[in-house]
Amino acid sequence: MTGKTTGYVSIMLVALILGMMLAVQFRVVNRAPAGISTDRAQEVVDELKQIDRERESLHKEISDLNYKLEQVNQGKNEAILALKSELEKTRMSAGLLTVTGPGLEVVLDNPDKGEGSRLSPGVFIIYAEDLLKVVNELWGGGAEAISINSQRIVATTEIRLAAPFININTKRVVPPYQVLAIGDPDTLANALELPGGLGEYLRDLGIEITVEKHQELTVPAFTGN
User: Fold this and answer.
1) Range 159-177 average pLDDT
2) CATH at residue 118
3) Which of 11, 38, 54, 71 has the fewest CB atoms inside 10 Å of its own CB, making it the most exposed?
4) Taking the CA of residue 81 as centre, how many other CA atoms within 13 Å lie in the half-sphere pointing to its CB?
5) Cα(202)–Cα(205) distance, integer angstroms
6) How much is the pTM?
7) Considering the domain boundaries, does residue 48 fall inside one?
8) Which residues span the domain enclosing 165?
9) How far is the C-alpha of 84 from the C-alpha of 93, rounded, in Å?
10) DSSP string, 89-121
11) Which of 179, 199, 203, 180 lies closest to 191 in space, CA to CA?
12) Could you tell me which of 113, 102, 104 has the C-alpha nearest to residue 208?
């Protein structure tokens, strides 16, 4: 074989080898995945949609919980106000609060024992029972708070004779006895001044009694144990 023929053969072999290499490389490139497959991309999209739905659901749940929390707080505030109101009523019933408002002033006094009086100095006209009757009549007339000579009348108050005085809440009181009652003045006055009622009965006993309506009175708080 001549040198020229050998050169052609060598060129052909090199060309053949290059062609085979290019064909193999082309097949490899075509078989390699180009980025993310269509199925995988769809899966990612579905996952994102699911995450969005879960996020929206969580937002709704947060809003619902916030609303419930507001309702609980509102109910708590209402409960506190109700408890405070009940506490005030209880303290009022127990006489622990000073009360100011319209009411009635009733003053009871023994008759004058001056010169010419037929009563001896040691005779008492007003007794503890008389004061109790006045207090009960005022309670029955709707009184909210009552005091006698600055002694608040409460459920545990004792009005009893301790000659020659009357004790109220273990405190000594002497005539004239000033009874203050908070409530509707007209109703309270009518309770005492009915014809044949307590006021007339006490006057028949010789007790000096005056009844006066006021637009504002102050009954002190209970100070005992």
Assistant:
1) 89
2) 3.30.70.1880
3) 38
4) 6
5) 5
6) 0.62
7) no
8) 99-219
9) 14
10) HHHHHTT-S-EEEEEEEEEEEPPP-STT-SS-T
11) 199
12) 113
